[in-house]
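Hey, I'm writing a tutorial for new members on how sequence and structure tokens pair up, and I'd like a real worked example in the thread rather than a made-up one. If someone can provide the structure for the chain below, I'll link this post from the tutorial.
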Amino acid sequence: MRIAITGSTGLIGKALVRSLRADGHEVVRFVRRTPAAPDEAAWDPRRGHVDPAGLAGCGAVVHLAGAGVGEHRWTEAYKKEIRDSRVDGTDAMARAVAALDEPPAVFVSGSAIGYYGDTGDRAVDEDAPAGQGFLPQVCVEWEAAAAPAQDAGVRTVFARTGLVVAAEGGAWGKLFPIFRAGMGGRLGNGRQYWSFISMHDEIAALRHIIDTPQLSGPVNLTAPEPLTNREVTAAMGRVLHRPTLFPVPAPVMRAVLGEFAQDVVGSQRVRPARLLESGFVFRYPGIDQAIRAALG
């Protein structure tokens, strides 16, 4: 299959490209510069431009592009960048897909479990409403921007990804060096739920979405059972054979991270109901397994 991908230089995008190519799929990577390789196509999400030649003949489009949520302190300018990079990019790609004479069978649009906001101890699945705050509002607008593809009859899936356990990037990429140095510990009171997923299962789930016609709308990409930050911290200590004695108080995180701290100490107990109902089988459902897989 010919598959177009945005965000191919990101943590998940790079892994997805490798996986698809290893199985013989043709991948077209959309880039925001002048294409420099035969497998690249141009797009400019700010101007709403997408090269239709890059989409021609594609059976699937996977849209993962967006500014990193945890890359910078949340100034008003960077919050605008987070929002615009998702909403404008999704709108541009969805419109381009809808305009094709022969559109792809599926448009997989990246989203996040930030949609649900802070759920506390309450477990939620895809039927739960959006939460309150900046990230939930971004997710609502982000998903709504895919309407042109949906209205054109293209099966559209919102891949609401949790915390990906990976050593090479994302939140866990920042945690591993700290825990390896024996400086890791719970964040805040440690009672907040973390909905994690191994990188292997994240990529397998995205490919399952592409290959499963009955899946549409929101699909949570998280392991079956979320754990508290305290439990995750203990697992990191077990797997890395390091002490976890240094909790980071919530006020310190707020001083360092600003508004983003509320999402670090907030609780999201999210379950992947639709993924499980569709027959997806996790290879690394437990946190110890996911951590070892990331290190392996």
